[in-house]
Amino acid sequence: MALTWGSALRIALLLSLLLAGVVACFTLPVEKILKNFLLWVEQDLGPWGPLVLAVAYIPLTVLAVPASVLTLGGGYLFGLPVGFVADSIGATIGAGAAFLLGRTIARSFVISKLKDYPQFRSVAVAIHKSGFKIVLLLRLVPLLPFNMLNYLLSVTPVPIGEYMLASWIGMMPITLALVYVGTTLKDLSDVTHGWSEFSTTRWVNN
After folding, report:
1. Residue 117: CB partners within 8 Å, gap ≥ 6?
2. Where would you find the membrane-spanning parts of this chain (predicted)?
3. Sign of the torsion angle spanned by Cα atoms 106, 58, 87, 54
4. Residue 194 — left, alpha, or beta (φ > 0 → left; ψ -120 to 50 → alpha)?
5. Position with higher pLDDT, 117 vs 47
6. How far is CA 64 from CA 83, 94, 150, 181, in A?
7. Which 8-state DSSP code applies to residue 41?
């Protein structure tokens, strides 16, 4: 009975976090908050800016909120080399945080969601034979929603090390593309413009 109540409590906690993320996307001026965050990174943090930008990926990824504005912001603020490194590391750390959450306190919840993704069954079987290659291919060719994929992969036997390395390499092309786009933007408002609409669409489609 204690285990059952404990599992229920963990699921309730995860649902509360996800609900908070959804509510924030729909009700709070998230676009303004992100713009102010990027301004803070640009004006006040100096050499610590890239590190803080990378760490900011963790809450967004865990809450399944699209972090593309951070990727664009990395290019805009720091240019291609530094921005790419910061964004690439941040995206990987964020994916790793969601993976670990799904493998621990959120495991029961993630397993309950597997029925919503029947196409993932074949992926889970393939991962038993070649985890690194499958994760890499899923990152390169996103057949499943990116943020949900972090959690779905957490209930497979792929080792955390292989998952992180494959995710890091597989996400490089899209990260590089977005960072480059960020370097071409003329104003910080261009980085965050339309983010709310994009984020809302992703939530609805996912």
Report:
1. 144, 148, 152
2. 12-30, 51-70, 76-102, 123-143, 163-181
3. negative
4. left
5. 47
6. 22, 10, 9, 23
7. H
Give the pair of three-digit tokens for residue 104: 């621990």
**Identity at 103, one-letter amino acid code:** R
Higher pLDDT, 177 or 5: 177
Q: Which of 85, 109, 110 has its CA nearest to residue 168? A: 85
Q: Binning pLDDT at 50, 70 and 90, where does residue 194 land?
A: low
Q: Residue 121 burial (CB < 10 Å; 0-12/13-18/19+)?
A: exposed
Q: Which of 25-29, 139-143, 179-183 has the lowest mean pLDDT?
A: 25-29
Structure tokens at 165: 């390395």
Question: CA 54 to CA 42: how far, in whole Å?
Answer: 14
- Radius of gyration, alpha carbons of the chain: 17
Helices then strands, each counted (H, E), the chain: 11, 0
Instruction: Quote the CA–CA distance of 92 and 90 in Å, as a whole number.
Output: 5
Question: Tokens representing 144?
Answer: 């499943």
Lowest mean pLDDT across 79-83, 84-88, 91-95, 190-194: 190-194
Tell me the torsion sign for CA atoms 187, 191, 196, 198: positive
pLDDT of amino acid 200 = 37
Query: Rounded to whole angstroms, how far apart are CA atoms 144 and 153?
Result: 11
